[in-house]
Write a structure and sequence with these properties.
About 40% of the residues lie in helices and about 0% in strands. It is mainly α. The chain has a domain of about 35 residues. The radius of gyration is 25 Å and the shape is elongated.
Protein backbone atom coordinates (compact mmCIF):
# COMPACT_ATOMS: atom_id res chain seq x y z
CA UNK A 1 0.00 0.00 0.00
CA UNK A 2 1.35 3.42 -0.99
CA UNK A 3 1.21 6.20 1.61
CA UNK A 4 0.21 9.58 0.19
CA UNK A 5 1.47 12.56 2.21
CA UNK A 6 -0.47 15.33 0.46
CA UNK A 7 -3.72 14.41 -1.22
CA UNK A 8 -4.00 17.84 -2.79
CA UNK A 9 -0.66 19.22 -3.88
CA UNK A 10 -1.95 22.80 -4.00
CA UNK A 11 -2.61 22.84 -0.23
CA UNK A 12 0.45 23.73 1.80
CA UNK A 13 1.17 21.84 4.94
CA UNK A 14 1.04 23.75 8.21
CA UNK A 15 3.98 21.82 9.59
CA UNK A 16 6.44 23.56 7.24
CA UNK A 17 5.84 27.01 8.69
CA UNK A 18 4.43 28.44 5.47
CA UNK A 19 2.04 30.73 7.33
CA UNK A 20 1.98 34.46 6.64
CA UNK A 21 3.40 36.82 9.20
CA UNK A 22 0.98 39.10 11.01
CA UNK A 23 0.50 42.55 9.55
CA UNK A 24 1.90 45.43 11.61
CA UNK A 25 -1.56 47.01 12.00
CA UNK A 26 -4.28 44.36 11.71
CA UNK A 27 -7.08 46.92 12.21
CA UNK A 28 -6.20 48.65 8.93
CA UNK A 29 -5.49 52.07 10.35
CA UNK A 30 -8.71 52.31 12.29
CA UNK A 31 -10.97 52.57 9.21
CA UNK A 32 -12.49 49.17 9.85
CA UNK A 33 -13.08 49.89 13.52
CA UNK A 34 -14.82 53.20 12.77
CA UNK A 35 -17.02 51.56 10.14
CA UNK A 36 -18.00 48.82 12.60
CA UNK A 37 -18.86 51.36 15.31
CA UNK A 38 -20.99 53.40 12.90
CA UNK A 39 -22.75 50.23 11.74
CA UNK A 40 -23.41 49.18 15.33
CA UNK A 41 -24.88 52.57 16.20
CA UNK A 42 -27.15 52.50 13.14
CA UNK A 43 -28.28 48.96 13.92
CA UNK A 44 -29.16 49.92 17.50
CA UNK A 45 -31.07 52.99 16.32
CA UNK A 46 -33.07 50.94 13.81
CA UNK A 47 -33.84 48.32 16.48
CA UNK A 48 -35.05 51.02 18.91
CA UNK A 49 -37.19 52.55 16.14
CA UNK A 50 -38.76 49.19 15.31
CA UNK A 51 -39.51 48.41 18.97
CA UNK A 52 -41.04 51.86 19.44
CA UNK A 53 -43.17 51.34 16.31
CA UNK A 54 -44.41 48.04 17.71
CA UNK A 55 -45.21 49.49 21.13
CA UNK A 56 -46.75 52.78 19.91
CA UNK A 57 -48.16 52.16 16.40
CA UNK A 58 -50.48 55.16 16.55
CA UNK A 59 -47.52 57.56 16.50
CA UNK A 60 -46.03 56.13 13.31
Amino acid sequence: MEVVKNVCRCVRGGHRGDLRAARPDPAGGGKTVIANVIGLILAVLVAVYMIAALLFPERF
